[in-house]
Amino acid sequence: MTARTTRSAAHDRRATKSYRLRRAATPYLFVGPILVVFAMFYLWPTLLTVGSSFFTWGILNPWQTQSPAEWDFVGLGNYGETLADPTFWNAALNSAIWLVVFPALVLALSFPLAILIWSAPRGGGLFRTVFILPMTISLAAAGVVWSLFYNPDPNKGVLNAVLSWFGLEDLSFTLGPLEFHAGRWLSDPGVLHLGFADIRFVNLFIIVAAVWTFVGFGVITFSAGLTSVDAELLDSAKVDGATQLQLVRHVIAPSLRPSVIVVAVISIIFALRTFDIVYVTTGGGPSTDSEVLGMLIWDQVFQFLDSPQGGLAAAVAVVMSALMVVVSLPYIRATLRGRS
Amino acid sequence: MSMKPFARRGRAGAAFAALTTVALALTGCSAAPVASNSDGAPSGEIRVLSNWSGSEGEAFAAVVAGFKAANPDVVVKIDTVPFDQTQTTLTQQFAAGNGPDAAIALPGIVRQLSAQGLLMDLDGLWDEWVGAGEYNDSLRAIAQGAEGKAEAIYFKGNVNGLVWYGTSKAADAGLTVPPESWSDFETMLDSVAKTGVAPFSVGAQDVWLPTQWVDPVLLNVAGADAFGELQRGEISWNDERIVEGFTVLSGLVDDYWPSDALDTGFSDETCGWATGENMFGFNGAFVNGIVPSCDSALAPGDDYGFFTLPSYANEGTPAQAVSGDLFIGSKDTKNPVATRAFLKYLGSVEGQSIWAKRGGYIAPNMKVPSDVYPTVNDQRAADLWPKDEAGVAGYDLDDWIGGEIQAIYRDALVDLIRSGDVDAFIATMTEADTRSGDQ
Do B260 and A153 touch (CB under 8 A)? Predict the structure, then answer.
């Protein structure tokens, strides 16, 4: 009896242990496939990029992990060279303009638009569709559309046609550090001389085109957020005599803080990795006025074949990625906080 | 008992291995193109990368059709990519080990691919051609790879630096063309500028267009020797002859270009002078075939023509600026026989005559007769092509240098157009191009 009880207890312990193991392993079985995909298509390329940034190589003779005899190790040389290169800083400045202006414009336009649509007594779905439609167009196509819009010939470019009606097509002025030339939107629209750097306005006109395609994302996100605004709180505020502006500022805006973080961070990431719309509209030009970091990497890998710069491009990519992680932290934190 | 699962697994594994082997073998059989027939004639399939579209694409397709007619067992698949993405596409494909069998290329990329040992050796073909007087050594030099071997063929030639104009508009303005001297040329341009419209239509938004202004002006002002030395990296950009050349160019830009040049593309440039908005265009011979797309009623020769720049220093005819497209063959092609046959056809009198008959094209092969060209403009342009060893020509600097220096050159040129600051341009290029060691 005692022996049977002991055996039974041991069996139960084994069964419990096995059950615990199975239970502990089950989530990993479900997550495993996606982890494998992540490791293959995200982790491994990331490690390769970081690793290759310590070597000199070109696209036609790439750095390969299995050929150590052919490695040309330069340590942190590529990072040093990148940080000392004026071309990098020019691209970094242009990317910084994107980083600040693009999210700001997306937020500034999509937030009020979403509220206006939300408050509209009817037709909200129609308005949302109108603003979301540009999202369905690829950025390359949007670049082509806006290049036509900016065409300097008033017979082709809508913007210059409007200016010519008012006789402003040749408007050009200098105001202190500011130079402005109307009509030359993608070639030489002007510059703001800051002393330590020049802010080229051609970037702003490309950003406007990108905002046109992206503002729908903000409208969708804010519209979704608006559904969670406490109706009782709104009614109370109205009863207390709050104006529309006060309602937005003190009731709606605080409720939309998570949406603001989502739109801001996604916009920042989009801005930092922008490439296609710049490539289509100006190709990074004129000269290097609109060259962003993504284009610099592309040039270094695919254009500069005579002076292999794959390692430099990898270094720029690593710096860019680090920056992206830093700016994404608020979003990640907010997401994790929401889950907990 | 316990062996059974393993035995089953073993049988399954063997079956899987057998199936895989058969599948691989079948795939291998179907994927490998047949190199040649039993009689040695080319056969199988080749993939060719080109970047011509529109009328030029149709002309190239006609040449390919001619090759197919002569080699009925060869299937030619043409991949067409946008002009400005040719280098990227080619680089990506070679880097991925999936290079085309044959591809269009410019001298800069030919040297880069050659340096990596990726190109087919075509010295044998060139020996035949030069021996038969179809090409000369200076044309062969343009097709050379990194180690002096010919690793490309010269398929499409072009003469640059032609001042295009509408005949009736020039006559209405009382212009005497061609001007006999540089001062006559400037007087003529000044008279046009006084009307309030820029004399030239310029599409500098496509950066290769302003680069086509540089070569004829440099060849004319600095001379063919200095041009060649700069191209080969034997002198620096701050050489006084080169500086003078760019100073003259900058003066032309300031005085005779429209203010919206950097907003205007190639097709608008051509139609700008062809339809009479501006008096002149400055471009290569190939625009002769583009003009009908602006106005199909315009007849070459009768309605529009060209003249070359008069000598800057009144010292005889300046050296001719030329450019053109090469074709390379992949060293690792699975079908070397058909690829080589295709390249040989592209370099031949027969192949080049097909496009020459259509116009907008200069045959690099010196044996292509002048009478195949369809219009008087094409014939006049073809006559400018160097025909013998004595003919002095300067190959397109931008296409020749390639790589990072080319990218910096293009950016600096745009800055020069905007600012007119020749010193800044020369300083940028002197710093960027360190080949001469004279920094």
Answer: yes
Is the domain covering A86-150+185-339 a CATH 1.10.3720.10 domain?
Answer: yes
All residues at 6 or more sequence positions from A254 whose CB lies less than 8 Å from its CB, including other chains:
none
CB contact under 8 A, B91 and A183: no
The ipTM, to two decimals, is 0.75
Fold classified for B162-321+396-432: D-Maltodextrin-Binding Protein; domain 2 (3.40.190)
* Interface membership of B205 toward A (CB under 8 Å): yes
B198 touches B253 (CB < 8 A)? no
Per-residue confidence (pLDDT) for residue A4, from 0 to 100: 65
Q: Is A155 on the interface with B (CB under 8 A)?
A: no
Give the tokens for residue B314.
């009144």
Span A184-231, pLDDT tens digits: 899 889 999 998 889 999 999 999 999 999 999 999 999 999 988 888
pTM of the model: 0.81
Q: Residue B329 carries which side chain, given as an amino acid letter? A: G
Q: Which residues of B touch A153 (CB under 8 A)?
A: 260, 268
Would an 8 Å CB–CB cutoff place B435 in contact with chain A? no
**Confidence at B222, pLDDT banded by 50, 70, 90:** very high
Number of H helices, E strands in chain A: 15, 4
> What CATH superfamily classification does B44-159+322-388 receive?
Periplasmic binding protein-like II (3.40.190.10)
Give B360-372 pLDDT, tens digit per residue. 899 999 999 989 9
B412/A302 Cβ within 8 A: no
Residue (of B213, B219, B214, B242) closest to B313 by Cα position = B219
B141 to each of B151, B152, B429, how far by Cα in Å? 10, 10, 25
- Tell me which residue of A68, A71, A305 sits closest to B407, measured CA to CA: A305
CB contact under 8 A, B404 and A306: yes
Q: Does B112 contact A at CB distance below 8 Å? A: yes
